[in-house]
Amino acid sequence: MILKKEKLAPGINLFEIKAPRIAVHARPGQFVVIRLHERGERIPLTIADKDEKAGTVTLVVQEVGKTTHELGTYGEGDTILDVLGPLGEPAHIDLFGTVVMVGGGVGVAEIYPVARAMKEAGNKVISILGFRAAELVFWEEKLAEVSDEVIVTTNDGSYGMRGFTTHALQRLLDAGRRIDLVHAVGPAVMMKAIAELTSPYGIRTVASLNPIMVDGSGMCGACRVTVGGKMLFACVDGPEFDAHLVDWDELLSRLTYYRDVERISFERWKRERGMV
Ligand SMILES: Cc1cc2nc3c(=O)[nH]c(=O)nc-3n(C[C@H](O)[C@H](O)[C@H](O)COP(=O)(O)OP(=O)(O)OC[C@H]3O[C@@H](n4cnc5c(N)ncnc54)[C@H](O)[C@@H]3O)c2cc1C
Ligand code: FES
């Protein structure tokens, strides 16, 4: 049951849902697989926050295609048929020293629980939050609560630093700032660029991968990724991996495999609702 819905930015909604057992067991970096109704497809969503006492978990969802738009039509009091989780390996939390958390778009919500855990473990946390434009900025204050420093970038310079998250990270590197770990979550192209940036500096870098997932339990093979030459399943072996070892081009190509059917299914859904 959805207890709270909040619009964080155009096309980005927060849902607080009742899921007491998931709330108890969820750890930073884990996700759920949801199915809206009997005819719905399964999609993975990161557990962005939780409240064990209230028995709730928070999902932050960007509307990109049919299922995420359909979820956007759900409101408080509506029920999501299946919420399966917590799934995946939790993020590796340790005392590293200075940790730079990089979130791109909806990835900002996904880095929040990891940033909080990194801070609680005694790390200095610098969070770089990247958005396309000022109107899409969300959770800057929430990340500030668990970070020593927050840098916001917008592609068009309408808020914060103009440019991409890589530019902000490059600036820290150019200033000779000590960085012991970079943790990136966002579009695969962004995570690839971050990995390419940190590689020559030898900075340990992890990324939370976002391949297409179906069952989320290692059975279907949909989320196959190649890391360090080994075939792994992001849903059970990840989603966090050493970003310098990920075969990014394979991931980027696999993400587009179903683009035509995704588009057709979204168009049909919009037609059925008289939206086009
Ligand atoms: C571990 C993990 C955690 C994620 N956490 C979040 C989150 O917290 N918030 C959020 O907004 N998004 C998250 N995503 C991405 C989200 O699952 C997709 O945006 C969603 O599945 C798109 O479905 P759709 O029907 O709306 O769009 P579609 O039109 O079907 O697809 C649009 C694009 O989304 C991706 N996608 C489609 N189906 C899936 C699928 N079953 N699994 C993964 N990606 C898919 C593909 O790149 C596709 O091209 C996460 C993905 C993964 C793998
Ligand atoms: S989603 Fe099926 S194996 Fe990972």
Summarize the helices and strands and which ones pair or pack:
Elements: E1 2-9, E2 12-18, H1 20-25, E3 31-35, E4 42-46, E5 49-51, E6 56-62, H2 66-72, E7 82-87, E8 98-104, H3 107-120, E9 124-131, H4 140-145, E10 149-154, E11 161-162, H5 165-174, E12 181-185, H6 188-198, E13 204-208, E14 224-227, E15 230-233, H7 234-237, E16 240-242, H8 248-254, H9 259-272
Parallel strand pairs: 8-9, 8-12, 9-10, 10-11, 12-13
Antiparallel strand pairs: 1-2, 2-6, 3-4, 3-7, 5-6, 13-16, 14-15
Helix pairs in contact: 5-6
The structure holds flavin-adenine dinucleotide and FE2/S2 (inorganic) cluster.
Task: Characterize the structure shown.
The chain has 276 residues and is of the alpha/beta class. It has 2 domains: 2-87, Elongation Factor Tu (Ef-tu), domain 3 (Beta Barrel), CATH 2.40.30.10; 98-254, Rossmann fold. The protein contains 9 helices and 16 strands. It is globular, with a radius of gyration of 18 Å. The relative contact order is 0.13. The structure holds flavin-adenine dinucleotide and FE2/S2 (inorganic) cluster (FES). Flavin-adenine dinucleotide binds next to β4, β6, α2 and α9.
